[in-house]
Design a protein that fits this description.
Blueprint (H helix, E strand, L loop, with lengths): L3 H6 L3 H6 L7 H17 L10 H10 L5 H13 L5 H6 L2 H7 L6 H19 L3 H6 L2 H9 L6 H11 L9 H9 L9 H11 L4 H17 L24
Helix pairs in contact: 3-14, 4-5, 4-11, 7-8, 12-14
This protein binds iron/sulfur cluster (SF4).
């Protein structure tokens, strides 16, 4: 039998219900609504195409300032020459790598970037992505940003898509949609946008992966220089207001 003193210490269920919980994150709710709307319209995007983490990382470097179709040709050429492993790429003469990746444009520069990343990966983790998956995220991101030619967008694409780390790739496509929906300032830079999304959404690599790919899809299909809002699956989120251009 319960002691009388214990019974009086337990508040009634109705009292618990009156205690206010933490404020609801309306931005999170909106972002998740946008995500679900895009997923319904476009389906899973299956990013990033690649047969191994190293191939994905190489693709992220090769697609800098280049359409993916051109970068994919360069990746295929590296694969055909059996250069898509850190040790093989590091051992290959620079001219051989440069010739293979010529379709990606600025191929001498990208050869140096690819080799710089590969040298870092070999020195830091023995060429294996397992270590990059387990290392503390902040320091490993800072180290990657110090590799010459790797900007935040490339680094975050490598961390997210090749290493499965929970970072959001806040590229120009993502920023354009979020700014047009007044979630971000029009002038928000890469870091501001990345931190904003990461602050409001669960720290989930699968969610960041799919959301980024879907924002690219909606940008290319509807949210172009002149937005096609009337046909866009995200038009309801504008709540009757014009997008902020
Ligand atoms: S096209 Fe219009 S509704 Fe669609 S994402 Fe862009 S601003 Fe939003």
């Amino acid at each position: 039998m319960m002691a009388p003193s214990m019974r009086s210490a337990r508040p009634a269920l109705s009292a618990w219900r009156r205690i206010p919980g933490p404020p609801r994150d309306l931005v999170r709710a909106r972002l998740l609504r946008l995500y679900r709307g895009l997923l319904r319209r476009f389906g899973p995007q299956g990013w990033w195409p690649g047969r191994s983490p190293f191939e994905i990382a190489a693709g992220a470097i090769l697609t800098q300032h280049t359409a993916w179709s051109q970068a994919a040709r360069a990746v295929a050429a590296l694969r055909a020459r059996r250069l898509l492993s850190p040790r093989a790429l590091a051992a290959a003469p620079e001219g051989v790598v440069a010739e293979a990746i010529r379709p990606a444009g600025t191929y001498r520069l990208k050869t140096r970037r690819l080799r710089g990343f590969t040298a870092w990966l070999l020195a830091r983790f023995g060429g294996r992505f397992e270590g990059m998956r387990r290392a503390p995220l902040g320091p490993v991101r800072r180290e990657l940003l110090a590799v010459p030619g790797l900007g935040p967008e490339t680094v975050d694409a490598i961390l997210l898509y090749a290493a499965g780390r929970p970072v959001f790739v806040a590229d120009a496509y993502a920023r354009r949609v979020l700014a047009r929906h007044r979630l971000l300032a029009r002038t928000a830079d890469y870091e501001t946008a990345r931190e904003f999304v990461q602050a409001h959404l669960p720290s989930d690599p699968a969610l960041f992966n799919e959301l980024h790919a879907l924002l690219v899809a909606v940008s290319k299909t509807y949210c172009r220089a002149i937005p096609l809002c009337a046909a866009c699956p995200l038009r309801r989120d504008l709540a009757g207001r014009p997008p902020r251009l």
